[in-house]
Amino acid sequence: MRFFTLSVILFALLAAICPTATEAKKKKKPDLIFTDNMQYKANSTFCERRTIDHEHQLWFSFYPSRLDIENAPTILWFPDGPGMPGSWDMVGANGPCTHSHASEELHDNFYSLNTWANILYVDGPVSSGFSHGEILVTTRQAAAKLMRMFFVRFADKFPEYFQNQVVAWGVGYGAHLATAFAADMIRKNTLNKMERKEGVDPDYAFDYKFFPIHKLVLDSPLLDLTTQFKSAIEYSHYNNLSQIIPQNESEAMLNTFETWYEKRWTNCSTYKQWDCKKELQEFGLLWGNLTNRKDEDGNMVDPHNILKETRLYENLDENIAAMKNSARYRILTSKKAEKGLGLRGKGTMRVEHVNYDVYTRYLHDKFWNLGDSIRSSAEDLELVLNAGFGPPEDFTPAVNTFMFVGEADLLANPLGVRRVIDKMEWPHKKQFDDAKFQRVLYQEQTAMNKQANTTEHDIGMVRASNNLVVYELKNLGRNTFRMNPPFGVLMTRTMRNNDPHPTYIVWMDYKHLNEYNVTDRRRASLSTLSWP
Questions:
Q1: Would 472 disulfide with which of 43, 251, 414, 454, CB 3.0-4.6 Å?
Q2: pLDDT for 503 beyond 70
Q3: Packed helices 316-324 and 361-369: angle between N→C axes, nearest 10 degrees
Q4: Contact between residue 475 and residue 407 where contact means Cβ atoms under 8 Å apart
Q5: Nearest to 338 by CA among 134, 128, 87, 518
Q6: Which residue in 61, 16, 18, 119 sits closest to 342, CA to CA?
Q7: Domain range summary for the chain, segments of one domain joined by +
Q8: CATH 3.40.50.1820 is held by the domain 41-223+321-440+460-502
Q9: How far is 122 from 144, CA to CA, in rounded Å?
Q10: How far apart are CA 394 and CA 409, in angstroms?
Q11: Are strands 438-445 and 506-508 parallel, antiparallel or unpaired?
């Protein structure tokens, strides 16, 4: 096993502390520069995965696919946030390793996206997670530009991992950034393929290589606060799971919103120069009025999953405190993690003490106060959906977009996502509107012999057009893959094959592996899942 270490020096955007920064600026070098400092680390034990880390400012970790590195797509992961580091999802959730609820012992995550894909986790913007430095990125446009610069440079250094498809994957609020990133890459590719007789936008001039994005995956997407909050008011009563408020109250709240709030919020979502502090304060109050409720059994409802009692705290600070008291936080701040992730030793992060910021409150507040939370991603999403269907001079390949929506998520509910899509205009819109929902099924097999018991499960519905596939999933809340790992295996296989139709997959209960003398779990997972 070996670990690569790269030094990353970030100049204009990240205000890096570097003795050559002034000289570099005079020479008009790009904002993001890699300085090779290759190191090999042996005997690392952190989840037994090869990682790459940055020193000085921006930290990331890269995990090659477990099954087929040569043919695997590469995922750039955008976590929920803003302020949430990618490394938080690296341990547990969809990451390559996980742990039991209270244990700090790591083991392989058999349902990880890393099974079929290379994954790149980044602690960004700077100051989140293991990254450190001055915060200068406070909008998704600036963050998308930074990620685009970083990603292109990373791919230039490690081309062997980018011979296949490239996927931008965003969860919750991260869907905003993933969509902005994909749109920014499309604009860059279009400009860089054009003849440069009229010059090129200086923001893209140094990204000289054509680098397509093949897929955009949005899990529990928060894309348009105005549209989705309005839908949440209706959905809080008109859903098949848990009626949070009575019909008359839902209708009264909806009428009030349409009369006093909707127009102003829509303007805020559209015009980036508007000061929307008032509207965001209103959202906080209205959201509290909607969610500070008890269900039919008298329990407080969790807006991330209305089928459960709330696990949310009164404010963000209390949520952060709970995260710091978790086993996952103790894992990421342990000496074992420092060794395994290359945070210590020759050629690694040159800091006296490795700090880990599990959720950067200051960064979150900056994004919030500047109105980024209320800005709609409709323009960027429409650009992505239209990619590949313009005139030949655009040179832009099509992007396949996948959305996974849990029916138990109050804000990112199916009704709101449908309405966001309804606003889009793209060549296959009619095909999508006319498409019928189809059932998504999977088969569960609890043993490997011929007498195995097999159970078929209906886990939701899917609707698809040429380049847009939307799954509406039964009984799942925010971050659908984390809520139901076996479903994650099914969906990643479906997405990998661009198959928008009901899919059957046989997966086995790993608790029964030892009964059949199967010692190589990776081999068992490979044969059982029947990867193409």
A1: 414
A2: no
A3: 150
A4: yes
A5: 87
A6: 61
A7: 41-223+321-440+460-502, 226-316
A8: yes
A9: 12
A10: 38
A11: parallel
DSSP state of 154: H
Confidence of residue 312 (pLDDT cuts 50, 70, 90): low
**DSSP letters along 254-319, please?**
HHHHHHHTHHHHHHHHH-TTS--HHHHHHHHHHHHHHHS-B-TTSPBEETTEEEEE----SSHHHH
Spatial separation of the C-alpha atoms in residues 16 and 133, rounded to whole Å: 7
Rounded alpha-carbon distances, angstroms, from residue 75 to 64, 229, 307: 10, 29, 31
Other beta carbons within 10 angstroms of residue 159's beta carbon come to 9
- Residue pair 455/80 in contact (Cβ under 8 Å)? The answer is no
Count of residues making up the chain: 532
For residues 505 and 104, which has the higher predicted lDDT (pLDDT)? 104
* Three-class HEC string of 386-404: HCCCCCHHHCCCCCEEEEE
Q: What is the mean pLDDT of the chain?
A: 73
The structure's pTM equals 0.82
Kindly report which listed range (98-102, 155-159, 383-387, 451-455) carries the lowest average pLDDT score: 451-455
* CB proximity list for 180: less than 8 A, separation 6 or greater: 140, 141, 143, 144, 377, 380
Q: What is the number of other CB atoms lying within 10 angstroms of the CB of residue 353? A: 4
| 165 vs 254 pLDDT, higher one | 254
**CB-based contact 143:180 (threshold 8 Å):** yes
**230 vs 392, residue with greater confidence:** 230
Tokens of 197: 């007789």
Q: Which two tokens stand for residue 338?
A: 């420092």
Q: Which residue is listed with tokens 């809520």?
A: 483
